[in-house]
User: What shape does this take?
Amino acid sequence: MNFLFVHQNFPGQFLHIVRHLVAARQHQIVFITEPNDNVIDGVRKVPYAKPAGPYGQTHIAARELDAAMRRADAVGRTADNLKQLGFEPDIVIGHHGWGEMLNLRDVWPDVPMLGYMEFYYQPIGIDVGFDPEFPTGVEDFPRIRAKNAINHIALNLGGEGQSPTEWQISTYPEWARPRINLLWEGVHLDRCKPDPKVRRAPLTIAGMTIAPTDKLVTYVSRDLEPYRGFPLMMRAVPHLLKARKDIKIVMIGGDGVSYGNAPPNGESWKDVMSREIGDGLDPSRVVFPGRVPYETYLALLQRSDAHVYLTYPFVASWSLREALAIGCAIVGSDTQPVREFITHGENGLLTSFFDPAALAKTAVDLIEDPDLSRRLRANARRYAEERLSMTDYLKGYEALIERMTGMKLPEAVAVAPVKRTRAKK
Assistant: This one.
């Protein structure tokens, strides 16, 4: 089959299915994307330049749509060039978030199109206004509603959608939900797995050594920011350090902003919260290593005594799935995306998003109850084996592709690794 994938940051959410299709060695796979250094052998990357946008005269509520249509133009021209060169896809698979797919129906009117539908924005009732510390004024509601212009155009292109959780589908209007397929994303269970050996030797990160007798509390986010509960985690730190002298804390994440707003004056949220916590943040027991290599991340989760995962009512991170597969003892925020994965007292513990003392107490109680910890860890791994298998995810993806195209996919015979060039700091 001929596959066309589209995502501004190759390979995006399509890493696993692309690798799986490459492994069959019987497909032509083309990927339209902005330029980056990632490479998957067997995939033809076709870059397009991100278009500049003259926002000066554009209404603030329409700027995201303006940028999306400029991307749609750029990707549409790129696709038309591919067509002129003789490439005809059997299916187009891409992410609708940035508008890249909006003009592809004009290039290939009859080709099945499967678009990633990640989130439907609402001015009240979900992520916006969830955290009273960061209120959103009613004057910003038009901009938030207008973010769905891309969603609405995408839903009327005649293709189908995909989304990774029931919660994310539930954010869409009822009329749209039947058009969106649930593709429950998986993890590599043979890589994300418990490893008792990591507890037998000291582990050093960011200059801090974690002895086998220390109690390690971990927190992970792409960026340290309010959407992922970073202020709550920071405010829990003094409680954690006071509760036990053997607790050490590692918070993995960058200093940028993936979701929501940046703090004023060019600071990072780590700067803001470190200043607030002050002397309650002991640098000999708390470190911020930034973004770390994947193997380091896995080792920390395997060593963790209590892993904290927090989020607004928004998109659940891949790290939550990986923590479950590793068999972490998880303390999660009692929010809708987390409740879809964690049942309190069965495969993790839930606590209020707004109570740092309760978060700390829950983590400490977990550390001090070995039987509870063992049970939650075992159930987390069992849950992952039953619900988060990469094999099941790929089979579901294949079944959807076969239904949409009417074509049978061959068996995969190998695995194609992705080669990443890490950007210099």
